[in-house]
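## Example pair
The file below holds two records. Each record gives the amino-acid sequence first, followed by its structure token line.
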Amino acid sequence: MYPKLQLFIGGKWRGARRDMAVVNPATEEEIGRLPCAALSDLDDALEAAVEGFRIWSRTAPRDRADTILRAAALLRDRQDEIARAITLEHGKPLAQARLEVIRGAEFFEWDAGEAMRTYGRIIPAAPGHRFTVHHHPVGVVAAFSPWNFPMSQPARKIGGALASGCSIILKAAEETPAGAIHIARAFEDAGLPAGVLNLVFGDPAEISGHLIPQDPVRLVAFTGSTVVGRHLTGLAAQHDTRVLMELGGHAPVIVCEDTDVEAAAATGAVRKMRNAGQVCTAPTRFFAHESIFEAYAAGFVDRARATVVGNGMDAGVEMGPTANARRVPALTEMVEDAVARGATLATGGARHGNKGYFFQPTVLLNVPESARIMQEEPFGPVAVINPVASLDEAIARANAVPYGLAGYAFTNRADYIARLSDEVEVGNLSINTLEASMPETPFGGVKSSGYGREGGTEGLENYMTVKNVWHASQIG
């Protein structure tokens, strides 16, 4: 069920002198050895990507799209095999892993269509002159994907790069490498030219520090923490390299007094525990109108307590473990800090069981703004529910963090929806749903949650350069 772990460079699979363990977070057992790229491997990947870009950038958009679609079809065909590998390394329930494989395929399918729609335009000019605008692939992309979605996060980066005509060197997450390896295998089998897609693993600082300063690298695409994103942005700026950054979030949920309280509470609890809360768009800071606060909190807590926690391979499990051993003490400290500052621990708050990196579904009520969890993303199955007296207060508190990736609201009032749409400071606002994005919609953040967009018609813009051509029919 678990693939052989290798680097993919220049169309060939290879090992490395150094390796590291990949551990199943549900059992704490080693399930594979992951090769770590040396600097010579990175140089080989860069050389391969330069040649891959030469070939791929000159490939017709329809031919690029056909290759991407073939790879997406293979991923769909291999859904069960890939999902089982993801559950083994990440811990998420098998049903969620299967959905993630399909979501990754959908990203590729959307980008394949967009590959044929990178239109230019003609700008009106004086007689004898013509202005035309052209879009060209930016070049070699150095991309970095996180561990929380082993399939769909690499798919976003690879899909955007390949649809645009770029080549890519992807450093995928060392904790969860199987999704990216399956993607590389699918593209290999789909006939992608050698060097267009290169996959490496290893020390993140060493890899980013070596690749980003290289002249052929013209875009750095990163999904991860704000702290690391700022460091990579600074490194890229030293070499005039553009960046695409999807950084951390701390998503607010505004629950208005006119909503269906029972349905909103159940939806919030289920969505909060998805992926064990390890989602950059996870709903975390819930602000419920004071007239419904008690009922909403009670319904939320009841559903959170009912969450079935266990090994993702087991039937009926709704929430698996957190990703690694570091998460359990980090979440425990954050909960203890909130309680020490006056918050009420309604449920959870500690490790679940004594095997694996499980943390109990946790709900905190009446949490003061001074608590760490009100300013720092917990990235775990911990929800905060606070009462608010008005929509004004809810919006102000929703915006009172430096992050702005996703936000949510539950209401049926048109005037509330208009205000929320205008005033909540996020890149993605969802109303009466806790789904943040689809392949056809642009996804990205504002403020400290990054810049640039993935998905939608905007998704390829970061991977393209714009050239204006001025053609005069006569010299002079």
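Second record, same layout:
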Amino acid sequence: MSRIRDLRFSVPIAVMLPWIFCYSRIRTRYMMNHPDKYSVQDRYDFGMKVIDHIAKHARVTTLVTGRENVPTDETVVFYSNHQGKYDALGILRNMDNIPCAPLWEMKAADRILAHEMAYLVNAVLIDLESMRGKAKGIVDAIEQIKAGGNMLIFPEGKTDPDKGNALGEFQAGCFACSLKTHTTMVPVAIYDSYKAMNGNDIFAHVKVQIHFLAPVRYEEYKDMSKQELADLVKARIADKLEEIELGPKGLIKE
């Protein structure tokens, strides 16, 4: 018999099932069936309520720095390292309700609660199993950014919680989303997020760190290639992770 995995994710969801099926899913389905009644902000605000419920039951505290680095008067593409199931939830719920759509793996979005959540946050789906699917996802993301939508992208693609806080390869193709739209980028460094909803220790209280780093304006990167841009963002996130390893200071409790 295979070993049960990721109880830190499945147990909170199981505890929330009555709330999910008796309230949140019904309300979300109503929004999906009556799109003209709800704005992007309305859907997003409700999505944040669902995320708050999940975080509460998952015994996660999020420590955040750099909120002042998040522009509120322009379209932004956020690029973050990727560790586990909590990454997008933690980042989105700490943007002060500024709508931001994640580039979401299609397979992961086709699960209980995830399908509705993808709708609420206006996610762009990407099929990581094929080159054509990847290309279509990037094109769809570019179109949404051009229309004024903020985007959250994880250049590492799929997660590997076993690597802990180590960085994987950043896929250069993701950075076409910035080069094609000339938007400001904000690198995001997450730390210990792999402990939040991966693993089986359901009693441990986990502290996750999220750091919004200094914005990178188009004037700074306009002459770079996609690979050079990937290297730049990865280096800035790596520097922050190294700083944390040496001893974080000035964290702001959520």
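Notes on the second record: The chain has a mean pLDDT of 90. Residues 7-253 form a domain with the Glycerol-3-phosphate (1)-acyltransferase fold (CATH 3.40.1130).
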